[in-house]
Amino acid sequence: MPLLVLAAGCTDSAGSPSGESVVTGSTGSLVVYCAHDQAFSDPILARFTRQTGIEVRVRHDTEATKSLGLVNRLIREKSVPVCDVFWNNQVLTTTDLLPHDLLAGYRGSGWRRIPDAYKDPDGRWCGFAARLRVWIVNTEAMPATHDAVEAASSGIDLSRMAIARPLFGTTLTHYCLLWHADAGTTLKTWHAEARRRGLVEVPGNSAVKNLVARGTCDLGWTDTDDFFVGLDDGHPVAMLPVRLPGGQTICMPNSVAIIRGTPRISEARRLVDFLLSEQTELDLARSASRQVPLGTTDEASLPAEVRRLRPLVLEGIDLSELEASRTACLAWLRSEYKR
Amino acid sequence: MSLEVECGWTLLRALAVALVATPLAMLLRVAIQGAPPRTRRWQVLALAVPFLTPGFVVGYSYSNLTLDLVRTPILNELFYDLLLLIEVVPVGVLLLWMAPPPPLGPTARWCTRLIGPQRLQQAASCGRLRQLCYGPARNLVPAFGLMALLVFHEFEIASLFRVIAGGRLTPASWSNALFELIALQQLGQTSPWDLWKSGWFPLGCSLILLAPVLLLARTAIGRDGRMPAAPGLGRSPAASRAAFLWLTAALLLGTIIPLGSLVQDGVLGLSSLWGENRYQLGRTLAHAGRSLLPAMLVASIAAGVALWLLKHKRLGPLLLLLAIPGLLGGLVLGLVLTFCVLALAKPLGLGHSIAGLVLGQALWLLPRAALLLVLLAVVPRRESMHLARLLQQAPAGPQRTAGWQLVWQLAGRRLAWMIGLLCWWAYLELTLNELLAPPEWLSVAHRMYQQMHFGRNAALSSTTLVVILVPLAVVTVLVTVGRMIPGPAALARAPASHTENA
């Protein structure tokens, strides 16, 4: 068997079904940088390879430096691009690439089916399959109601509340939105107070889920996909949408973009259309991550949990005006965490 | 916490752990070296196994425990330190064992004591500091430095344990801080120099910790690539008991509990892998197989280069020079090579090349390869090798075959084990893989490690188990096949018995 493993190693491809195809060299396969969790993105990309015969090589990012690591790599590799398609798990860091002129425009069939609010008019990026920012609550420790969450999160002791470190990922977006409300005044005070009162900060949202699911903490901020993993594992957890001071929810779509100068433009376009298709949105909705489709889909074919989340997506705050606040918030966080 | 502060804390931890590890290594060396051969073999094995257990597997296995310790950062830090101690003590024992005896032995020290303190002070050449430098400190300082260096560079477990509770970060780790800084401030994006502005402090610390090791290596490596061994020590029952206790605890905490919990989790996941996710299992096996190929390549390169350099005495300084990047750790080496590869990618067409990864991992493995060459005595005695080579040229076929077999027994077999060990390290290496591997060559261990940041689950545990078992299965098959090949004695007997029968 070990020798078979070695032999198989010579012919395997990331997305191919076993034994169906042979590696054609790095120039023949599509290179995808993917910030979306591997467990959820791999089956989608495998299906793409099965359907099209196009090999896909994937580089994922770690939970700790979610998406920022890949964005920096893309910028660093600008003169010698390696990546063809960037599948980000949010929109904000994808738009960081626009000033670097790294994204190629493409307005294909997938782009057309996504509402205007979630895409670039020039087709340089396009959103799909959203997650929501939620409170995860251990139901054995406290009731999962807005009042209970409000009381627990504003109490003297915050040592039983967990968040991911806000330097990266969706917690950074969350912080940026809080900053956006009043140029950071309330956020700065809350953050300093929360740390003083013992707030627990862990590397990523999944660690928040683990802490709450195991009962080490009572509540925390996470994303819907992480919450559902905890729920499916049989833990006593419930969720409530995080609401901003204006009452809006925080909805974070995935985004996809083609890297300018890719020699595999037609394959890249096929992948983009594939990711933005109704089928992919349905697959992501039916997967363990229960992501909410943004384009038109058959409502009846969606799981019940996703149907319940759909109205919350419509209440999501507009992220398009966030760039300036994000820059300012990130500068403050750098000084706060790396001083 | 700034990078400099985190670096300071990491250094403090490195010194503290090394301070505890040094006497422990001394004690273990005395106990193991004084043990009967059969016991010694088991003790060496018990010492080596926790060192060879991948750090990220240990970190992953204990990740839930550290989540439970989130509100007691001191316990979290102490537990992390204990795991580090278990990991580095074998290196200290190895160094103390293999290092040549210091010029001032116990007899010389006894004589200086007999001279008396007043006359001793008058004799400048026998000052206390000099006595220490040429006496016990000669080997203890490099052992301390090397163990501190390893602790200083550890990041795999730290990144899985890293939490902030009430604004207090535990455990501090400069490698993780640098990674975060690169992501946050886009360091090195336009020029490598802004990265060096942040990286000079950890680099300086590493060089200081490394200096005594290099000095010892410079003087210790003998004429023919052999390190003259220190004389054996007498048996001490107290040391033996303490060594037994430590080795048992280290084996339990460093290997048996982590792997045991992985197996416990993994059995559930394996049934699902075998049942519903057979395709996933096939892909993991294939990925593991593909990851072994570059690992074998870099292991062979590192072994070949080290062997060649050790054979030529005049190239000793070059070996030391080439070993420095590897001793400075994967992060420093990887960052330097990242910029070199990016700068050369366009003119040399290296855009999708694996060359950077191969070069990086070969350099990273080179000091380990040199150490293993000396430790396993891969370079055979010249006389024995010469005789075996003569036999290879014998007119009779069976004698020639026996010559080949002898060469294999004298050097080949040990070299193969050494390459196997280097391959294991390359297969599990993470930093250079992250920084230098093109997407199609990202290793299976890298993939596992990324998933480990999402927390423990049965499926991931079983996949990790598969990833660890694949190289071990390959080794088992190779060893079994190797045993089927008859040795020189059997070959030599065969024609003789044939003649007798005739």
Give the C-level CATH assignment of the largest domain in chain A: Alpha Beta
Number of domains of chain A: 2
How large a portion of the residues of chain B is in β-strands, by DSSP E? under 5%
The H/E string of chain B reads HHHHHHHHHHEEHHHHHHHHHHHHH
Task: Please give a handful of descriptors for the protein shown.
heterodimer, A: 339 residues, alpha/beta, D-Maltodextrin-Binding Protein, domain 2, 14 helices, 42% helix, 16% strand, globular, B: 502 residues, mainly alpha, MetI-like fold, 2 domains, two-stranded antiparallel ribbon, 2 strands
Summarize the structure.
In chain A, 42% of the residues lie in helices and 16% in strands.
What does this structure look like?
The complex is a heterodimer of chains A (339) and B (502). Chain A is an alpha/beta fold and 339 residues long. Chain A folds into 2 domains: 28-130 and 252-314, 3-Layer(aba) Sandwich (D-Maltodextrin-Binding Protein, domain 2), CATH 3.40.190.10; 131-250 and 321-337, D-Maltodextrin-Binding Protein, domain 2, CATH 3.40.190.10. Chain A is 42% helix and 16% strand. Chain A is built from 14 helices and 10 strands. In chain A, strands 1, 2, 3, 4, 5, 6, 7, 8, 9 and 10 form a 10-stranded mixed sheet that branches. In chain A, helix 7 (169-182) packs across helix 8 (185-196), helix 7 packs across helix 14 and helix 9 packs parallel to helix 10. The radius of gyration of chain A is 20 Å and the shape is globular. Residues 1-27 of chain A have low confidence and may be disordered. Chain B has 502 residues and is an all-alpha fold. Chain B is 79% helix and 1% strand. Chain B has helices at 3-34, 37-52, 55-61, 63-68, 73-98, 106-115, 117-122, 128-134, 137-153, 156-161, 174-185, 192-220, 237-275, 278-311, 316-327, 330-348, 355-375, 382-392, 397-428, 431-436, 444-452, 458-484, 488-501; strands at residues 163-165, 168-170. Classes of the chains: A alpha/beta (339), B mainly alpha (502). At the A-B interface, helix 1, strand 1, strand 2, helix 3 and strand 7 of A face helix 4, strand 1, helix 11, helix 14 and helix 16 of B.
